[in-house]
Amino acid sequence: MNLKVSFLWIGLVIFALPMRHISPCRFNPFADICCALRSKKIFHQVLTSNHSVTIIEVTEWLLARRNIMAGDTKERILETALELFAQNGYLGTSMNDIAGRLGFTKAALYKHYTSKQEILDRIVERMNEMDYERAESYEMPETEPDGFAEAYLNTPISKIRAYSLAQFDHWTKEPFSSNFRKMLTLEQYRDPKLAQLHHDYLAGGPLEYMAAIFRKLTDTDEAAMQLALEFYGPMYLLYSVYDGAKDKDSVAPLLDAHIEQFITKVEL
User: What distance in Å separates the CA atoms of residue 243 and residue 120, rounded to the nearest whole number?
Assistant: First the structure.
């Protein structure tokens, strides 16, 4: 039996099954095969001249492929939704708007995400994942706040500078993170939950993080907070400078000069 005949035989077995097993996904031949094989649990083996093909292996491959495609679709939904949130605000964007931009029906969109809140929750999860991966890639210290200052003192200055510049690029050049920042900037005055996210990711959160780092370099909490303001304040301002700059490449040197001057001051 050659390979062509083998797959023809598979097709005959599938389409000989009762239609009730196939009809829910009749517009997708790959889904037809998956539904039929999965429902009947067919384990027949088809032999060819060179090797054997198992229907269950075909099923597993197709199911895996379908899962990958579903994952890609969910990711595209997140990115498209966040683009709209950054343009129109989270509150100003509906599930209809997201579906329309994607070319989906609203029903198709709801198969992947049940609500706009679920989309936002997944966006926040993705941001957390990206933060962790970036810190890990730059080998930044992972420790509790009390250990930040000592850990950073043992971290090369060049690495701190590189990580700080990477953070700036993350919030300005990386589309997903940049759109997240813009969304929070738009919505911080209109929605308490989004205002809290803005605080945690862009305002009070980074400031408190830096103050914890500088605490052991100063005598008081107030002095540590002042150092944090001196370091992070210009970075936060430069986000807006970057957004409005015609020559965006001119902004990074400003940040680099700021970090250099700050490091020089702290080392004195």
Answer: 23
As a whole number of angstroms, the distance between CA 82 and CA 259 comes to 31
Structure tokens at 173: 């050049």
pTM recorded for the entire structure = 0.71
Q: Look up residue 126 and give its two tokens.
A: 């993705």
What's the CA gap between 27 and 32, in Å, rounded? 8
What tokens appear for 163 in the block? 């990580």
Are 182 and 92 spatial neighbours (Cβ–Cβ below 8 Å)?
Answer: no
Helical pair 157-172 and 175-187, crossing angle rounded to 10 deg = 70
pLDDT digits (tens, 9 = 90+) for 182-241: 999 999 999 999 999 999 999 999 898 888 878 877 889 999 999 999 999 999 999 999
Determine how many CB atoms are found less than 10 A away from the CB of residue 240: 10
Give the model confidence (pLDDT) of 187-203 as tens digits.
999 999 999 999 999 99
Q: Cα Rg for the chain, rounded, in angstroms?
A: 27
Is residue 97 a contact partner of residue 74, using CB atoms and an 8 Å limit?
no
Distance CA 21, CA 25 (A): 9
The contacts of residue 224 (CB under 8 Å, 6+ apart) are 211, 212, 214, 215, 217, 218
Give, in order, the Cα–Cα distances in Å from 25 to each of 10, 22, 43. Answer: 18, 6, 22
- The sign of the torsion formed by the CA atoms of 231, 234, 237, 239 equals negative
